[in-house]
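To the wet lab folks,

You asked to see what we're planning to order before we commit. Fair enough. Below is the target structure as tokens, and below that is the sequence we designed to fit it. If anything looks off to you, flag it before the synthesis order goes out.
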């Protein structure tokens, strides 16, 4: 008796005999592969390791573009007027004082950043002068390093912007807004 499943298909080719069973296995593998290929992007979506990405991260400047003792205006997280913010490159004296007084929590490589919209009634504050930021609307006064209220009617500090400096390029990124933009107390 001859087992047909083991009978040669197409006879001998280059010294090898392909049996019917091997040929069927080959066909099944090919059809399985053709079935899966169209779903590959979907499988990749579900099973590929997720990349850590910070959607809030935004490049705002470079260390060489903000000299020591100067401040630049940027907008974060978006470009709306209430997202107007200050990036300040502190002087060595400001750095030393802020570190000694424990006001350096948001300081990165001598830079600090904060939102500039007054927490009293939303006036845009003036650019920092020395260690202070003034809101001329009703005389609100904030600390230029950590945004705390020094004087006047503002009920809470200016929101801070967390920073990251890329060591290779010196690019400065805003990575997170800490605090609420707006007036009044935070709930
Ligand atoms: S709006 Fe700034 S002090 Fe009133």
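Sequence we intend to order:
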């Amino acid at each position: 008796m001859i087992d047909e499943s083991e009978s040669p298909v197409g006879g001998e080719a280059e010294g090898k005999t392909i049996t019917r069973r091997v040929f069927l296995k080959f066909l099944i593998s090919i059809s399985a592969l053709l079935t899966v290929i169209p779903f590959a992007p979907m499988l990749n979506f579900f099973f590929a390791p997720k990349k850590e990405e910070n959607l809030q991260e935004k490049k705002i400047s470079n260390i060489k573009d903000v000299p020591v003792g100067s401040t630049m205006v940027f907008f974060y997280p978006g470009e709306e007027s209430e997202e107007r913010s200050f990036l300040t490159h502190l002087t060595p004296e400001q750095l030393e004082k802020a570190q000694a007084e424990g006001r350096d929590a948001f300081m990165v490589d001598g830079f600090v950043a904060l939102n500039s919209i007054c927490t009293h009634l939303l006036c845009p504050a003036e650019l920092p002068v020395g260690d202070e930021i003034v809101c001329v609307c009703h005389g609100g006064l904030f600390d230029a390093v950590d945004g705390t209220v020094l004087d006047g009617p503002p009920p809470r500090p200016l929101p801070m912007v967390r920073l990251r400096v890329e060591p290779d390029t010196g690019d400065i990124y805003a990575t997170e807004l800490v605090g609420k933009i707006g007036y009044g107390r935070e709930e």
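Structural context that might help your review: Helices lie at 20-36, 40-47, 92-100. The first helix runs from residue 20 to 36.

Thanks,
Computational group
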